[in-house]
Design brief:
Length: 210
Amino acid sequence: MAYDTSSGQLAVIHHAESIHRFVIDGGMIPCVVKSIKIVKHWPQAVAFGQVSARGPELWTFGQEDGVIIRGHTILNMKDDAIIFDDIAQGVALFKMAGSERVKIFEVPHKERRSRNVAFHDGTSTIISGSDHGNVYAFDRHMGDVIDMIYVGVKDWVQSILTIEASGVPLLFVGQLGENVGKTEIQMWEKVNVKSTTNKISSKSVWEDSR
């Protein structure tokens, strides 16, 4: 799902090739604006784009394009960037203008499982889950792993969410797999710590906030 606060519109997709667009009225009741079905599209993600005379654009991303089998998808209109969970490799970074693939951020894996992806610090950092209990943070421009979080169990980390609350970067992590029903949502906070080298005085790392 995706929600556009400026227009009060809600977009909903499901994997049966259908895309639904609603407007939320004053009574918080969704009213259908349009519903369409795109054959062999199988939408995996949806997002609102730039606002035109007819309202906000609506972007949907199908399961595959012949090259990438997609999972979760995030886009940032301001920085002209889209990231896809490419379940065969890692995270694929594209430019929206011209659909140019910029880089692949490889995530180690044993099985082809979908993972949520996210931007952090604007779009300077890319974050991805994994199938083995790690969350990876990549430098978008260099492609290097700049941080790695172990959630405490070697299991499928599918769900991640990045937000900023009162100026503090937060990362929420959820897992799936054999421990379903026994897991908790973990919250990690980004903090500054003193560096062990003389090159810089401090660096930012993720710290468990439980």
